[in-house]
């Protein structure tokens, strides 16, 4: 009996130059200079989670993608006006990918505790920012990997999970389709 590797269909917006290079080199990784410096603590936390949860992760910077294709109206947001971009449809082995809730990820980005109720939120406002609180806060962020939370806590978290994916690299043969566009042009 052969084991079939489970693949995830993902969509990522990238500079056209990355796609051009990928076609020549066959594999691509994130250039460190392209990563957001404003959110370095959140990204470091996510890289630790990758190391903990994704076997074979080597510690590199991460590509971001969505489990559903973003509406074309959103494409123009990425990059400077007129910059050549691509939306790549990928099929990547699930074992290389970490999925999380896009909206809940913003708790990590903004350094907010991820509460699941108003009662929990009120309790936390009464506590001081101690080192034990910070550890508890960091632990709360792990909830972003539970893709059922938004539905379980609909009144508090609002439902409608938008699944994002992070991974360290992808190969040319994992690209299913390419859609060309220019940033800032609808």
Using brief descriptors, characterize the structure shown.
186 residues, globular, 8 helices, 25% strand, alpha+beta
Write a structural description.
This protein has one domain (7-182). Helix content is 34%, strand content 25%. The longest helix is centred in the first third of the chain and has 14 residues, at 40-53. The strands form 3 sheets. It has a 3-stranded antiparallel sheet with strand order 1-4-8. A 3-stranded antiparallel sheet has the order 3-6-5. The chain is globular. The protein has helices spanning 16-25, 40-53, 72-75, 102-110, 118-125, 131-140, 149-152, 154-157; strands spanning 7-15, 27-29, 63-66, 84-93, 98-101, 163-167, 169-171, 175-182.
Structure, briefly:
The protein has 186 residues and is of the alpha+beta class.
Distance between the termini: 49 Å
Rg of Cα set: 18 Å
**Largest sheet data:** 3 strands, antiparallel
Q: What is the ordering of alpha helices and beta strands?
A: EHEHEHEEHHHHHEEE
How large is the share of residues in beta strands?
15-25%
| Helix count, DSSP H or I runs of 4 or more residues | 8
Q: Quick check: average pLDDT? A: 87
What best-fitting shape do the alpha-carbon axes yield? globular
Quaternary structure annotation: single chain
Give me the secondary-structure category: alpha+beta
| Overall tally of structural domains | 1
Q: Largest beta sheet: what is the strand line-up?
A: 1-4-8
Topology (SSEs and partners):
Elements: E1 7-15, H1 16-25, E2 27-29, H2 40-53, E3 63-66, H3 72-75, E4 84-93, E5 98-101, H4 102-110, H5 118-125, H6 131-140, H7 149-152, H8 154-157, E6 163-167, E7 169-171, E8 175-182
Antiparallel strand pairs: 1-4, 2-7, 3-6, 4-8, 5-6
């Amino acid at each position: 009996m052969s084991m079939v590797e489970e693949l995830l269909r993902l969509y990522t917006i990238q500079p056209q130059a990355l796609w051009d290079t990928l076609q020549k080199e066959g594999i691509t990784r994130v250039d460190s200079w392209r990563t957001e410096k404003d959110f370095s603590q959140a990204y470091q936390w996510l890289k630790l989670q990758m190391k903990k949860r994704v076997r074979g992760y080597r510690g590199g910077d991460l590509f971001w993608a969505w489990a559903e294709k973003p509406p074309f109206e959103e494409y123009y947001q990425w990059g400077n006006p007129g910059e050549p971009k691509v939306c790549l449809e990928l099929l990547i082995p699930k074992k290389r990918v970490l999925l999380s809730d896009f909206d809940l990820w913003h708790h990590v980005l903004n350094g907010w505790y991820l509460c699941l109720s108003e009662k929990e939120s009120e309790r936390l406002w009464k506590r001081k920012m101690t080192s034990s609180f910070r550890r508890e806060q960091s632990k709360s962020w792990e909830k972003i990997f539970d893709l059922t939370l938004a539905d379980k806590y609909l009144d508090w978290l609002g439902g409608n999970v938008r699944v994002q994916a992070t991974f360290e690299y992808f190969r040319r043969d994992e690209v299913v389709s390419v859609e060309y566009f220019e940033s800032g042009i609808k």
